[in-house]
Amino acid sequence: HVDRMCNECGNCAVFCPYDSAPYRNKFTLFLTRDGFDESTENQGFLPLEGRKVLVRLDGKVFEADLDGQNQLPADVETFILTVLKDYAYLL
Ligand code: SF4
Predict the structure, then answer these.
(1) Are strands 60-65 and 28-29 parallel, antiparallel or unpaired?
(2) Residue 2 gets which letter from DSSP?
């Protein structure tokens, strides 16, 4: 889910074929700190300077260094790295 492209219209919750509200449930890419702070329910990440990201996951907010030791689960780290590498046009 891409925060800057979403106006929270809720259509995806209505039409999603799964029992889901994608705009609330999907891991979210944030582009601004304001967007990250305002969206208190969405799990997701905000790219920071260098190779760091600010992450909200399982109710915790923390910074993670993608080039060093961090507390990201491996699947979440892989997801973030993939977004940054292969979907940079979203940034
Ligand atoms: S709520 Fe869903 S359908 Fe509406 S803009 Fe956001 S992602 Fe798109």
Answers:
(1) unpaired
(2) B
CA 85 / ligand 1 centre spacing (Å): 24
Please state, in angstroms and rounded to a whole number, the distance separating the CA atoms of residues 14 and 29: 22
What separation in Å is there between the alpha carbon of 4 and the centre of ligand 1? 10
Splitting the chain (91 residues) into consecutive groups of 10 residues, what average pLDDT does each group show?
A: 94 90 93 93 94 96 96 97 96 92
* 34: its two tokens: 């304001």
Q: Where are the beta strands (DSSP E) in the chain?
A: 28-29, 44-47, 52-57, 60-65
DSSP state of 47: E
